Amino acid sequence: MSAGYLAVDLGAESGRVVLGRFDGGRVSLEEIHRFPNPAVRLPDGLHWDVLRMLSEIKDGLARAVREEEIEGVGVDSWGVDFGFLDSEGALVSNPYHHRDTRTEGMIEEAFGLVPKEEIYDTTGIQFLPINTIYQLLAMRGSPVLGAAETMLLIPDLINYWLTGEKACEYTNATTTQLFDLEGGWSHDLFERMDLPTRILASVVPPATELGPLLPEVAEEVGAGPPVFAVASHDTASAVVAVPAEGEDFAYISSGTWSLVGVETRGPVVTREAMDANFTNEGGFGGMTRFLKNVMGLWILQECRRQWASEGSEYSYEELASLAEVAPPAGPLVDPDHPAFLSPGDMPSRVRSFCEETGQSPPEEPASVARCVFESLALKYRYAIEQ
Question: Domains along the chain?
Fold first, then answer.
């Protein structure tokens, strides 16, 4: 008799609901539902359509419970992004997307409030403009932050709507750059950044049972299985699944963002680690994920979107095949260059970077894709060697 568990895996390009079956010896996976997860641009900035996410998740739940009895549900996603609830538990506004430009200049503003070294010593997290700390800094004085009573990261927000429980799961909380390496939110950082500590929810470890689906949700999907706070930062869950038999291994988790690193038994907060901009994110079982964030396949995703808008649609499989036959050792880009952070005409940005660095720019999709793949491979190698 196998046990069925449902994984809700939210990515920055698409989401999926996957049914996992465990027969006591093997795990098998079946994708039940997949849906696009695009950003939505509004007059005030770039947002996530989190209500649509919830609707798609409930659709996947309903399909799964028709197939099998579900023993538990878990939700993971990317890090740093969040939603606010008001005093009555209602969503204040659609969550901002981490690529929204409102965080420009916020890292420098943060250093004017708390020295860079102190932020790193406290949190162990690398300095990226997408981090929650800089998103919140950009919102100081806004009506949205003024109305907020609770901040929940994306998986926690979904869990709240499924169960009614307000809690932040540990692995994702550490990505905010507001979580103290000693354990718990850094109230000192919040106060010195002039951010309200009232928005902080309690933090729970991965594998915490949050409770069953709310009655109205259970009625809608057809069953009421329990929901667990899993290792809700997607890379934390991915690292748990690395089939390594020892401790001497490195991993590359490549999606919209790529994360390259190792597992350690404690954080590494040396000056060398800070200068190399490495991060110490919480892992499962008390482990630390010592890693480097790399821009990842986001560049290729935006290339696909641009080419589709021009009338040429390519699947990832097609682009991989085209890149394979394109000339090797061509132009290279730095995937982490600020030019590639925001949405836009990415093929043109790739060509501009190459021109500005004295390289022959790639023109056709095949050569652009080859450039992106080889640039990422070189960046991965560099991160591991560091």
Answer: 3-236 (3.30.420.40), 298-385 (3.30.420.40)
